[in-house]
Amino acid sequence: MVARIPIATAALVRDGLVLMAHRHPMRQAYPDRWSLVGGHVEPGELPRQAVIRECREELGVHVHDPLPIPMTVSDSALDMHGFLITRWDGEPVIAAPEEHDDLRWFRPNDLADLKLAHPESLSSILRAVRAATEERRGTE
Predict the structure, then answer these.
(1) CA distances from 84 to 29, 40, 135, 140 (A)
(2) Bridge partners of 62?
């Protein structure tokens, strides 16, 4: 059996919106598509550590308390680890322009209109936004 590639991905959610990154058209994997920020889990690294590192490298933010969430993808070569992020320091920016050429906050209803890297993950992303919104209501 071939080892699957571990990937850690972050659903940053603020005010009911989710942050999506547009993958640079020159990227080898899933070019010119929208996705959550994230990347490979390095050897010896836990997925939680990877998502914290990836957010720092790709967005320039320090995330707090990544909450694991189920993340569906159809690519059987990937071992996807999703995380809901509702707290971070800094304002997300394109810190890795070779990876992403755009960064935008989307309403959940607008996600279905995007050309997603993993369209099958849409329901997972929507559940994360709902969970974040419900969590926020519980703390107000």
Answers:
(1) 23, 17, 11, 19
(2) 89
Provide the token pair at 14: 């603020």
Contact 10, 83 (CB under 8 A): yes
Main-chain dihedrals φ then ψ at residue 69, nearest 5 degrees:
-135, 150
Q: Return the ∠ at Cα 19 (arms to 46 and 15), rounded to 5°.
A: 110
**What percent of the chain has a predicted confidence (pLDDT) above 90?**
75
Tens digit of pLDDT for each residue in 90-120? 999 999 999 999 999 999 999 999 999 999 9
| Cβ atoms of residues 103 and 93 within 8 Å | yes
